[in-house]
Amino acid sequence: MTVTDLVRDVAVVRRARRAPRRRYALVLAGLTGLAIAAFAVNVLLGDYTYTVPDFFRILAGEEIPVASYLLMESKLPRAVLGVLVGLCFGAGGAIFQATLRNPLASPDVVGVTWGASAAAVFAVLVLGLRGTPVSLAAVLGAVAVALLIRSVGGAVGGHRLILVGVALTAALASLVQYLLSRASIWDVQVALQWLAGSLHAADWATVRALVLALLVLVPLLAVRARSLRTTQLGDDLATALGTRRRDPELLLLVAVLLVAFAVAASGPIAFVAFMAGPTARALNGGRTTIVGAALVGVVLVLAADFVGHYLIGDITVPVGVLTGAGGAPFLLWLLARGATGRNPA
Fold first, then answer.
1. Do the Cβ atoms of 266 and 81 come closer than 8 Å?
2. What is the number of domains present in the chain?
3. Is the pLDDT assigned to residue 82 strictly greater than 50?
4. What b/e string do you get for 313-342 counting C-beta neighbours within 10 Å, with b at 16 or more?
5. Cys-Cys crosslink for 302: which of 33, 38, 141, 316, Cβ 3.0 to 4.6 Å?
6. Residue 17: is its pLDDT beyond 80?
7. What single DSSP character describes residue 199?
8. Domain that holds residue 327
9. Is residue 51 situated within a structural domain?
10. Do residues 165 and 111 touch, judged by C-beta distance below 8 A?
11. CATH no. for residue 216?
12. Using CB atoms within 10 A of its CB, is residue 92 exposed (0-12), middle (13-18) or buried (19+)?
């Protein structure tokens, strides 16, 4: 091999290594732009519209009758909560699918979301709780179900763990239906509003609580996320490459907490965690990207909230209803293209 051939080969390798990075940067830039656009649409448009200068004047403290109250107490906390919830669902779903090496292994399917839902419904219908205690019950329920799945299902990444989660999902759904059938009409309405998954009850207290949770969980995720790429190769190979066996479990714990806090803040917004990961992977050339999935989650939640709030006649459709309607054909598409194996597509 001549020096010229060697230089040419090195240049080819460098271009091959730069191409995925360039695509990744473009994907993140595009998704960030979409997320910002969706946030702006939710805040500035709707029943009461704002100009960009008015928006910044209100943020700076200027008082504009009616407009200031609607923006600061309704539209802005709703949009900010949509961003935070979308980040949690998107990142949590991507971690589930990558760690368990199955694109169907989202919190919705495995049972974590239903654990939170069943605990919250129990708190509302049986214990008569409202507000923050219901949110705490949802978090505890999600964590308890995740621990139960792990103890019964065996090793992280095994098909048995997913099957146990599916079985628990069916059992928890039956429990929720039973509780709804035994409760008063008023309590059932409260529980159903929560189960639908929406941002209608957004306030700054909920936003602050979710921000605090993210301030703890995001650094933990950043520390452990490096092992995610090798985790997808299988337990034995990942260990040979230096990944500790506890890393997948720690990543899953972070994902469970992300989803649990999101469900506690907004209710179980269906299929966002399920759709975000595969969508981000498809845009990124088949490579898992937690940041990309988080941004896809933001776009999905904000877009569904705006459509359900303003574009469907005179009624308000909860976010979870629209994302659930979109998630069903998405699942059928994944099944049709055969993306149900152990390795995410």
1. yes
2. 1
3. yes
4. eeeebbbbbbbbebbeeebeebeeeebeee
5. 38
6. no
7. S
8. 24-336
9. yes
10. yes
11. 1.10.3470.10
12. buried
